[in-house]
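User: I want to check something. If I give you two sequences, will you return the structure for each one separately, not as a complex?

Assistant: Yes, each is folded on its own. Here is the first sequence with its structure:
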Amino acid sequence: MRTAGTSRTPRTWRTGRRRTGSVPILAAVLVLVPLAAACGEEQADGRRPGSASVSAEPPLTGVRWAVDSVTVDGATRRSPGSARLTIADGKASGSYGCNDFTATAVVEGGSVRFGDARTTRMACAGPVMAFERLLAGALADGLLTTEVKGDTLTLGTAGGDLVRLTRT
């Protein structure tokens, strides 16, 4: 049985007023404040969207490249079709056209240097072996410049020889 002056809504101990709606308001604040903060334009690193410098070059590493051609002393030779190159985690691997190879690869800025190359030793048809010798020589020619444009990679030697590759 109820006594006079009691109700189901609890009263606060200080004011004696009834608490109404404070929980829904608190819940709304807890949900809406983080959402409003997320709507800002500044990123966590302090940059504004659109102000970030986007790399103009697609990645050189972690991509499988098909060798299209090698230009040595001004003469261009087309790939026999099976020559390829992948650079990842400080290593290079691929095929010169007949034989597979692995090597170390140091990529810095716009250059790459291959070293400690190891290769299989299969004999192939004359034109394939001739292309293989040109490609192996170009890749082993010290510091190579790299230029990536879209799906095309061009490696250049100090002497002007070029290796052209396409992303596969």
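And separately, the second sequence with its own structure:
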Amino acid sequence: MKTIQSLYSKKPSSSRKRWKLKPDRRTIIVLTTLVSAMTLVSGVLLLMEPGPIQPLTIASLQAFETDKAPVNPLATDAPLHPWLGIVIHDSGTIQGTADQIDEAHKQFGLGSLGYHFVIHNGNGAPEGQLVSSSRWKGQTKGAYCGGPDADQFNQNALGVCMIGDFDRSAPTEVQMQALVNLVRALQNQFAIPADRIWVQTGGRTDSSTGKLFPIATFQRQLRQF
């Protein structure tokens, strides 16, 4: 069984002209072909263009904490960074919390939780609870990618971790709704196009979102806004 130590993820593979990454020889085909640019890196599925982006209310993004009033997980302590994309992983574990990942990433020498956001699955923290990390609050780069071009992704794309092993079980409906709400809010805030939303999937690695992640449902939910 995977442990929390498996939560440090590798680099998502993609050709990134906008970010001036070295192109890969393989062609990225939206929602059909999985791409791998390095050993033990999962494929990437790019989401097709959703409908027009509509503003979301803060209520739809509230992260509820035990014995505390609802908080706004998009609140920051620093001016907004011009984020260009979103990368979505699963944790590769059946249960866990943002705090546990934070501790594991500190042990890896990352300083703090490498992702900007974590969405819980109910096993360890309330189902669908959205937690923003110090990296989001401080608008600093992530630490969820590894490899030669990792800094391009960490610096320019927001990292979202969903607690769960989606090769073993699908994310919950509540988790998925929280993800959709978050992604749409971030798209609206930063004008992020759909082709800059990556859901890592394919062969099981510590950096992928497993085969049971509902890509088609995710697309449909995004279009409903």
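Because they were folded independently, the notes below concern the second chain alone. The helical segments are 98-107, 134-137, 150-156, 173-190, 215-223. Confidence is low (pLDDT under 50) at residues 1-60, 62-68, 202-207.
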